[in-house]
Amino acid sequence: MDPQRLKEAYLRLDLLDERLTYKVRPKPGGGMVRATADQLESQMRDLAEYTIELKEIVRELFLGLASRPQK
Q1: Segment 3-19 mean pLDDT
Q2: How far is 36 from 34, CA to CA, in rounded Å?
Q3: Within 1-71, where are the H helices?
Q4: pLDDT at 37 over 70
Q5: What is the mean pLDDT of the chain?
Q6: Of 53, 49, 60, 54, whose CA–CA distance to 9 is shortest?
Q7: Has residue 3 got a pLDDT over 90?
Q8: End-to-end CA distance of the chain, in Å?
Q9: pLDDT exceeds cutoff 90 at 22
Q10: What is the percent of the chain with per-residue pLDDT over 70, rounded to a whole number?
Q11: What is the model's pLDDT at position 30?
C-alpha cells in the first residue's frame, strides 16, 4: 500500500466535494420547475465532470492500495 498515493487521492476527493458536490446534489423540494435546455446542458456538464473525476479518483485509490510505497 502506498500511503502517499492514498493521501493524494483523498485530497483530490475532498477538493472535488468542495468544488462540485453542491452542483449535483438534488435540491430539497426540487423537481417541480421545468429546466430550460441551457440549464439542462449546464447540469449535464457538471454531472459529467463530477462523474469522470470521481472515476479517476477511485482508480487512483485502487492503485494506491495495490502498489508499494514510493521511496
Answers
A1: 92
A2: 7
A3: 3-16, 22-24, 37-66
A4: yes
A5: 88
A6: 60
A7: no
A8: 12
A9: no
A10: 94
A11: 66
- Spatial separation of the C-alpha atoms in residues 22 and 28, rounded to whole Å: 12
C-alpha cell recorded at residue 24: 449535483
Length, in residues, of the chain = 71
Q: If you average pLDDT over residues 24-46, what whole number do you get?
A: 84
Write out the three cell numbers for 23. Answer: 452542483
Query: What's the CA gap between 69 and 61, in Å, rounded?
Result: 13
Specify the residue for cell string 479517476. Answer: 56
Contact 69, 4 (CB under 8 A): yes
Note whether 5 and 60 are within 8 A (CB). Answer: yes
CA distances from 19 to 14, 22, 53 (A): 9, 8, 11
Q: From CA 16, how far away is CA 18, in angstroms rounded?
A: 5
